[in-house]
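User: Sequence recovery, please. Input:
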């Protein structure tokens, strides 16, 4: 059977529980295999999630956090359903069960399931009349909150950061507070962005 081979750089994206081989490549039960070539809608949801994990997730900036969510989903009972059996009722029960772990957890999982099904329909030949996730209510988004440091908290934060094993924690906190930069912006910085003569940092 034709199989999907995962390059070595993608090995860390797949949990040990779902690895079939750790030699040169990992062979997955792929949608492109002869097993599912004629009945892709009967493939189990985990097949699509693994395909998504290998083909779509690595191109995202948040690939590490998304890979962790996908690896958790792969172990969830929802992954054992055939794609054609993923009814709105089944997904609504999954949503309510995941709500016990928080609004974000439930929402993120449903978004991944919805997008993986959309990609499977558009690009991988999976025949579905509609996406069942679109037929259910999504969890409400958590209310945004504004949190400002109280008197003495900044000094306390710096004192703990100074004794942290992560030596860069204290300067990162100072840089964030003094400039208002986001974490992603700070992590992308390199010395070419710094003009020592003008004492200017270019983002």
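Assistant: Recovered sequence (203 residues):
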């Amino acid at each position: 059977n034709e199989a999907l081979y995962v390059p070595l750089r993608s090995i860390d994206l797949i949990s040990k529980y779902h690895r079939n081989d750790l030699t040169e490549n990992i062979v997955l039960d792929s949608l492109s295999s002869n097993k599912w070539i004629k009945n892709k809608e009967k493939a189990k949801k985990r097949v699509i999630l693994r395909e998504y994990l290998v083909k779509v997730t690595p191109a995202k900036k948040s690939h590490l956090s998304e890979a962790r969510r996908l690896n958790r989903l792969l172990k969830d009972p929802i992954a054992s359903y055939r794609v054609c059996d993923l009814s709105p009722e089944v997904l609504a029960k999954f949503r309510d069960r995941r709500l016990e772990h928080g609004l974000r957890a439930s929402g993120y999982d449903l978004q991944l399931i919805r997008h993986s099904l959309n990609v499977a329909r558009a690009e991988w030949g999976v025949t579905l009349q509609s996406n069942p996730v679109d037929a259910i209510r999504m969890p409400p988004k958590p209310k945004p909150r504004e949190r400002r440091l109280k008197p003495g908290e900044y000094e306390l934060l710096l004192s703990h950061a100074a004794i942290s094993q992560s030596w860069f924690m204290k300067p990162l906190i100072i840089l964030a507070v003094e400039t208002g930069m986001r974490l992603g912006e700070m992590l992308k910085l390199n010395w070419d962005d710094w003009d020592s003569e003008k004492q200017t940092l270019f983002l």
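The beta strands are 4-6, 26-28, 194-195, 200-201.
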